[in-house]
Design goal:
With about 160 residues, the protein is an alpha+beta fold. It has helices spanning about 15-25, 55-65, 95-105, 130-140, and strands at about 1-10, 30-35, 45-50, 70-75, 80-90, 110-115, 120-125, 145-150, 150-155. The radius of gyration is 19 Å and the shape is elongated.
């Protein structure tokens, strides 16, 4: 099962290493990892996605809560939340391919952020499913490069 963990931590050296160590120590892979500062100086928010057994992820969450530098851990799995990921794609767009690629870009509400004679760089933001669907459609044109941010997520309002 896919889990999304939102972790509020103190912004100091070694925090990322300790958090990653909890996963590797139990043989679990971190699928995506995103870290950024919060509105409060000295605090950062980590968003981690992982695939794993419910019991093991529950143990990891308990261990994360014991870390001195961890202030809050929320498993957003099964909680109403908003999740987004951003991706940049370098796509082959020579000649007649360009118009069709641009139509797909428009349908998916993407942005073209760079243009050259034979390729486009496209920016897309959305759920993992949306990004996957776009990748499937653009595959036939030739995707030259991909850069993805990993998931960021936030619990929807008015929930305990």
């Amino acid at each position: 099962m896919r889990h999304i963990l939102s972790i509020l931590v103190e912004d100091e050296p070694g925090v990322l290493s300790r958090v990653a160590g909890l996963f590797s120590g139990r043989g679990y892979n971190i699928e995506t990892l995103n870290v950024a500062p919060t509105l409060t100086e000295g605090l950062s928010m980590m968003t981690i996605t992982t695939e794993g057994d419910e019991a093991i992820v529950e143990q990891i969450v308990k261990q994360l809560r014991k870390l001195v530098t961890t202030l809050k851990v929320v498993d957003l799995t099964g909680v109403k939340s908003v999740e987004r990921e951003m991706m940049l794609l370098r796509v082959d767009a020579e000649g007649s391919k360009r118009a069709e690629v641009l139509r797909i870009v428009d349908i998916f509400r993407c942005k073209v952020v760079d243009v050259s004679l034979d390729e486009l760089i496209i920016e897309v933001t959305g759920t993992q499913d949306k990004l996957g669907a776009l990748l499937n459609l653009l595959q036939r044109f030739g995707i030259k490069e991909i850069a993805r941010t990993g998931a960021v997520a936030m619990r929807r309002g008015m929930q305990e």
